Input
Amino acid sequence: MRMRMLLESHVAPGRLVLWRVAPDTIAAAQAALEHPAPPSYVQEEHLRQALARRREGRRLPRWHAGAIEIAGPATPAAVENALTGLLRRHDALRSGFRTEGGRLRRFLVAPEDIALVPEDAGEFDTSAALRERLGTYFDGAIDTLEWPAYAFAAVLRDSSATVFTAFDHLNSDAHSVATALREVQELYTADVEGRAPSLEQASSYLDFCTAQRQDPIPGGEVAAAVSHWSEFLSDGLLPQAPVKTAVIAGPPPVLVNHEFQFLDDSIVTACEKWCRANGQTLFTGLLAALGQAAFAVSGRTVFRTIIPLQTRRNPAAPSLGWYINAAPVRFTVSPAGALEETLADAGTATRAALRHLGVPFERVEYELGGELAVQTAFWTSYLDFRPLPGNRHQPPLDAQLLTGPRTGTGVDLFLNRTEAGLSVRARHPDVEAARKHIAVYLATFSDTVTALVS
Output
């Protein structure tokens, strides 16, 4: 599982088939009664931002996608059966929202009402033409405020097929996209082999949303989380990446997402062993190395970033949804280059962030009295794709996690671990100076990790 921008991915030429939800399914959604499950905190914020953009006459695609390779000739019917099975399994994909009088009202479509209709988009001779058509399709078909906020496609060939699942963030996070690919593979294989799919029962995202609102958060926990964020923001500034992007005033530039480094599994495993010997996790060690590299390239003795944390109550259970909270991390970097000291401080900071996982960031934001523009901050994401549901019993996926178009001025890091190693990517403004400075920073980070285990 490797992360790439859709426009930099390679898709072998072939016949393109697109799928949309059938008209009868749309009619069922329009007739569906209100469902009592509220939006999760992060869903509500995402929807309200989309509504604000609509009032301003702006539309901003916020989809991400996955692509999986299937060996052998694939028929549209078999792929459609797999995609339909995915939708019927997960209530997050069968539910949407209406806005009435400023209130968000959820509805839910019954599994038996779900159906798809294919569109043959014709033969494509080049990967570039396919990427452009897919990007245009996903941009147009996926809208945060319209159900369904997802779309599917496949490129069919005589000896293989590439199946795409694209979702608005409203319905999914990166873990969910990877889970969807794993399930599509199994649903497709089971259909072709004429057997029942070997999948555990899916967990309900709507139950999670209900519990998130109904389970009272003790006032002391909320106050502690607010205090933690307030201390993090004591200088009044959100964290920024330790590199110069050279972005000038004006409309925000296009963001690109590139892989700058790749550390093979032997290095990552040795680094994890060293971290555990020092009482810390691999992620904490990677944060410490990022902090040490930031000091090397910018002289910063304090490393600050925001990390997304998974809120799944059982990460091993298959469930699609947006299970993410935001947490601030701040620690001191040893100016003497003693990574053990930086690691200890990073560990303390990470554990402090985890203590407030049960308090949604949106609740903290409300208590602080206003919206925090965290989208412009410096984020560091770590995702381990190895323990996804089914991974231990099935061969590794030949798959990609694909990102769509974005604009902005900030820099985000993505540390994605697979069986092969650690992919180190950055999303940044498409400016040459930004690319140059980030390359130096992440090369220094890679050298720090490699020197640690050599």
About this structure: The CA atoms of residues 184 and 398 lie 12 Å apart. The longest helix spans residues 432-453. The chain has two domains: 2-208, 219-453.
